[in-house]
Amino acid sequence: MIDKPVGEILKAKQGPTLLSIAATATVAEAVALMDEKGLGSVLARDAGGNMAGIFTERDLMRRVVRQGRDPKSTPVSAVMTPEVRSVPSSESTVEVLRIMVEYGYRHMLVADGGKPVGVLSARDVMRALILPDEPIAHEGKRGEVRTRALDTVETLRQG
Question: Which end of the chain is more exposed for a tag (fewer CB within 10 A), N or C?
């Protein structure tokens, strides 16, 4: 489970795993799209359609709300994170979680051959590590989740 490729997590997700918007779009437009699709990030594309960066909920809070910018007139390009680290879909779940924790990422781009295939949130990765693959009885869920969480923490400490 901990060595499961993150591509499997993407396949198991319901709904879209990758959103994109023009970098010239406004923050308000990006937030509306993210809200409509229920995702915490959107990739920004340049005029040529290439990835220019990622805009996340954290960018919204730190670079728009905190700085008092107007979301209706601020372009995504002014507040996005331009440097986007990615991992291949074959990367292990535990390695992706390690990268996310070490660098403070809440979203990780998954790309194969330079082409984005999806974005995983920290919640997606933790769910894959902690929650069981098959449903378990309600009365046993808390103990099962706790045990899996402790096993995951111990594995990360050893790694």
Answer: C
DSSP string, 54-106: EEEHHHIIIIIITTT--TTT-BHHHHSB----EE-TTSBHHHHHHHHHHHT-S
Give the number of other Cβ atoms within 10 Å of residue 100's Cβ.
20
Find the mean pLDDT for residues 74-94.
95
Question: Is pLDDT at 150 greater than 80 in this prediction?
Answer: no
> Which helix H or strand E contains 20, and what residues bound it?
strand 20-22
Using the structure block, give the residue that is written with the tokens 């901990």: 2
State the CATH number of the domain containing residue 83.
Answer: 3.10.580.10
pLDDT band of residue 31 (cuts 50, 70, 90) is very high
Has residue 1 been placed in a domain?
no
Mean pLDDT to the nearest integer, 62-85: 96
Domain span at residue 23 reads 6-158
